[in-house]
Amino acid sequence: MIKRFAAMMMALTLCAAVFTGCSNAQETQAPETQTETETATVESESETEAALPDGMMYSYLTGEPVDTAIGTQRPFAIMINNIEDAIPQSGISQAEIMYECPVEYGITRLMCVFQDISNLDKVGSIRSARHYYVDLANDNDAIYVHFGWSPFAEERITNDGIKSVNGLFDNGTVFFRTDDKEAPHNVYTSKEGLEASLSWTDQTRDYPEGYEGRLVFNHTDVTPKEGQDAVKVTMPFTNNSPWFEYDPETGLYNRYQFGTAHIDAENNKQLAFKNLVIQYADRTVISEQDHQDFNLYGEGQGLYISDGKAVEITWKKADKNDKTRYYYADGTEVSLNQGKTYMACVPTDMSVTLE
């Protein structure tokens, strides 16, 4: 009888505890659910990162898994000739990020950012620096590579003490010329040349201690919500008239210019990108030679394009010591899909066409 009474009392105690717990859960349901959700999200992300094999990490430039020996190296940002006499270019399909900005007289120049140079046997042709490209290279903590410079780029690089790799001062180990194109469209470099440039310019490929990449990436593919259709994206650059066409089978944007597919001469592959990022910026002409200047500090409007959709974004960069970041209208930071990205500076008096 005593045992039965003790069992009944224990059961009543358990029921009361359960009832009290349920009551407390109902009274605090919102915060506990939020906390649990946030914890689950963190754990999910941690589990995703922990799932990478030993010796692998997520690339700061593409968000894709890469060998840690590669992912912890500063990239090279190489100025690429982009006039019709210089195409097809070499090696540029291997770049993790490619920039395009107008320079003088309506032409554009490319800057290709390479972190993995293990298979870079020939890249170019290489042309001179422009001062606003210095900001774009610095956004990625990249080693800036160019052959010559405008007066404004010379002033910026000299005054800021930037250790760029300039072909004008090459000791004969970094750049080489070919006989298939006329100068100045025949300057190239390679993996060996880029590696040789480090000792010549007294630079290291090690990131600064505690380095964190500026770009945010999704671990799984995410189509921009409430985006405008962007199956064809036409850039407003008049000299080379570039455009991109979305391929739903690959999920990539194939690039065209000068009326045809934009091809890498080294592998005969068409350039293709997972993401397109457009940065509208105020432009002024600052010389009689039509040198351009872009205001890349402060904030401005832009577009993030991926998976056949485009969404309006805002870019922000406080000053030359800051790095450019991108935000949605609600203030959350743009998270890119994993893969290669094309980035363009477009004058605010021009606009990209979406179809």
TrEMBL record:
Disordered: annotated segments: 28-48
Residue ranges occupied by any DUF3048 domain in the UniProt entry: 61-198, 233-342
Low complexity composition bias: residue spans: 28-43
Entry keywords, A to Z: Signal
A Pfam family matched in the record: DUF3048
Endpoints of the signal sequence: 1-25
Protein name: DUF3048 domain-containing protein
The species this protein was found in: Candidatus Onthocola gallistercoris
